[in-house]
Amino acid sequence: MSLPTLNYRKNCRIITWLCCGLIILGGFVAVVRGDGVRSDAEKRKIVYQMYSGYKKDFPDVRDISPQQAMDLLQQNQVTFVDTRKPAEMAVSMLPGAVSEQELFSRSEVYRDKTVVAYCTISYRSGKFAAKMADQGITVINMRGGILAWTLEGGKVYDQSGKEVKRIHVYGDTWDYAPAGYETVKFNLFEQLF
Fold first, then answer.
1. Pick from 85, 71, 61: which is nearest to 140 by CA?
2. For residues 96 and 77, what is the distance between their CA atoms, to the nearest angstrom?
3. Domain containing 1: what range?
4. Beta strand 163-164 with 166-170: parallel, antiparallel or unpaired?
5. Following DSSP, what letter does each residue of 64-90 receive, concatenated?
6. CA of 173: how far to CAs of 105, 121, 153, in Å?
7. Where are the beta strands (DSSP E) in 26-147?
8. What are the pLDDT digits (tens) for 86-130?
9. Radius of gyration of the chain (CA)
10. Are residues 27 and 54 in the same domain?
11. Does the pLDDT of residue 150 top 60, yes or no?
């Protein structure tokens, strides 16, 4: 065999091994990211772990569990504030939820209720609650957001008030909706802007 033929075969073997390595690594990354089939209990655990990590950015904000928020809802003692983008709210919201803008424009309507903020996993709502606390306004953050709410059995509704099984999860990182739910995500460009 000539030297160019040996180099060609050697290069082909190297490329083959690199491709195999990338395929194996890609499968490992997919498992670590959360892709694949997980039980709702596993998803719930992941969501609460993620929230605990985010909570460090707003440690003084009071929070409540989705179950406590459901209890307040049963007693008609809560106003939910959705701190997500309009495109996310268009997919589904908690029962009777209002936007930040509506809360401010009609604050007298919500004065006698407990104000509970949420978003996908309650990072943005935690920051919102911290900002409100700086202004002397009490807003409680719901642990784990709309993901924890649905994973704990809470229902979500579209803007016409119809119950739906769809959640906007913002992006792949937070794709932990319960079994039976359709998820909607922003692409990378939409996440950045």
1. 61
2. 12
3. 1-33
4. unpaired
5. E-HHHHHHHHHTT-EEEEE-S-HHHHT
6. 33, 11, 21
7. 63-64, 78-82, 98-99, 114-118, 140-142
8. 999 999 999 999 999 999 999 888 888 999 999 999 999 999 999
9. 22
10. no
11. yes
Task: Identify the bridge partners of residue 114 per DSSP, sorted by sequence position.
Answer: 78
Q: What is the structure's pLDDT at 111?
A: 83
Question: What confidence category does residue 3 fall into, taking pLDDT thresholds of 50, 70 and 90?
Answer: very low
Model pLDDT, residue 34:
45
Residues 10 and 25 in one domain: yes
Task: State the pTM of this model.
Answer: 0.80
- Together in a domain, 111 and 136: yes
Residue 167 belongs to what H/E stretch?
A: strand 166-170
pLDDT at 115: 97
Question: Are 1 and 62 members of one domain?
Answer: no
What pLDDT sits at residue 28? 38
Q: Which of 152, 165, 118 is nearest to 43 (CA)?
A: 152
- Whole-Å CA distances, 100 to 9, 80, 182, 186, 189: 64, 10, 25, 21, 24
Residues with catalytic annotation? 119
